[in-house]
Amino acid sequence: MEEADRSLLDAVAAGHIRSAARLITRVERDDPGVVPLLQALHRMGGRSKVVGVTGPPGAGKSTLINALVRHWRQAGLRVAVLAVDPSSPFSGGAVLGDRLRMMDHSGDDGVFIRSMASRGHLGGLSRATGDALTVLDAMPWDVVLIETVGVGQNETDIMRHAAVVLLLQTPMGGDDVQAAKAGINEIGDIFVVNKADHKEADRSVQMLAEMIALAQRLHSERSWKPPVLKTRATTGEGVAELATHIDRCFAAHAEGTPAALQRARTRMRFRVGEILRDMLDRRMRSQDGQWLEDLLDPVIARETDPYALAEKMLERAAT
Ligand SMILES: Nc1nc2c(ncn2[C@@H]2O[C@H](COP(=O)(O)OP(=O)(O)O)[C@@H](O)[C@H]2O)c(=O)[nH]1
Ligand SMILES: [Mg+2]
Questions:
Q1: What ligand 1 atom has the least distance to the C-alpha of 63?
Q2: Partners of 145 in beta bridges
Q3: Strands, E assignment, 85-183
């Protein structure tokens, strides 16, 4: 590793914000030179509690994150926020909005807010988010929050990087119910009905609680029962209680317990899978080398078939 990269690593580990920002920019640009850095950072990592916040656009994710950051800052914790918004690849408008909502914390060096540009990730936004998290998690942040719009597979994938996931709803409409279902079955650890000032809020809490109770019966192996909370992000109402539940969820999956190990394995299996698919994709696209070229002729001549060749390539990669 070059001297410059080594001192960059040291700076990141020491919590130097501008170095981290620079490194994340390189991740965003798909700079292959960051891979050795990411490898080293992984070994230094595991320092932060990574919390995902997802939910439909306008549910109040950014506002709630702002309130959570304020709460944790008052408790003396250092917090980083990674805002990922795949829904606006070119405008950047939503991300700008997020920045404004989180402006309360500008000038506070115990807070780092970074938005991920979503354009141009060859290997997918989720893998790049995983890389950015690798950078942040090697820094002395107590909590790292990821915000993403909870619509679609891409976003569900991004949430798989978080250890604890909050699924934010507003007093419900039809689409939200679908998102809630996906969250209950897949990723949600804590359900939050935001905009508690809305008259339908209590009914939504009750509906969600019923859906969760039903899902729990189908998944009796799950030890964690997701709570349903109510918040009013604009005033901070319910935020302290939410923070308590986040702590509880981390405590229920405390390091070293079987539940924690199982979750860590699930996250890492996903991360490796993303990297693997990305590597394969890059090789397929790359024009250099005869990686596949030599093997095509027998397939074209119908002496063998594309499935057999693909299988053979996988076997070769595995050995
Ligand atoms: N009435 C009310 N409005 C809220 C609440 N939380 C957020 N909002 C507003 O909802 C809008 C969308 O919030 P934002 O945080 O940008 O949502 P995001 O798209 O999920 O990040 C903003 O105008 C917020 O001020 C709340 O608890 N009550
Ligand atoms: Mg937002």
A1: 15
A2: 51, 81
A3: 111-116, 143-149, 164-169
* Cα–ligand 2 centroid distance for 100 (angstroms): 10
pLDDT digits (tens, 9 = 90+) for 162-211: 999 999 988 866 556 666 666 666 778 999 999 999 888 999 899 889 98
How many residues belong to the chain?
A: 319
Sign of the dihedral through C-alpha 109, 162, 43, 124? negative
Residue minimizing CA distance to atom 26 of ligand 1: 195
Question: pTM of this prediction?
Answer: 0.89
Best residue among 53, 54, 61, 63 to mutate for probing ligand 1's pocket (most ligand atoms within 8 Å of CB) is 63
Q: State residue 231's pLDDT score.
A: 97
Pocket test for ligand 1, best of 234, 235, 239 (most atoms within 8 A of CB): 234
Residue owning tokens 């915000």: 147
Dihedral angle sign, alpha carbons of residues 144, 145, 148, 150: positive
Which residue, judged by its Cα, is nearest atom 9 of ligand 1? 60
pLDDT in tens, 8-45: 999 999 999 999 999 999 998 888 899 999 999 999 99
Beta bridge partners of 53: 147, 166
Cα of 131 from ligand 2 centre, angstroms: 21
Position in ligand 1 atom list of the atom nearest CA 94: 19
Ligand 1 centre to CA of 214 (Å) is 29
What is d(CA 146, CA 188) in angstroms, rounded to the nearest whole number? 14
* Cα 277 → chain centroid: 18
Q: For residue 20, give the nearest of 148, 162, 141, 142 by alpha carbon.
A: 141
Whose structure tokens read 């964690």? 224
| C-alpha separations of 215 from 182, 185, 219, 304, 314 in Å | 11, 7, 6, 46, 37
10 CA to middle of ligand 2, Å? 32
Question: In terms of Cα–Cα distance, which of 141, 17, 135 is closest to 73?
Answer: 141
Three-state secondary-structure class, residue 133? helix
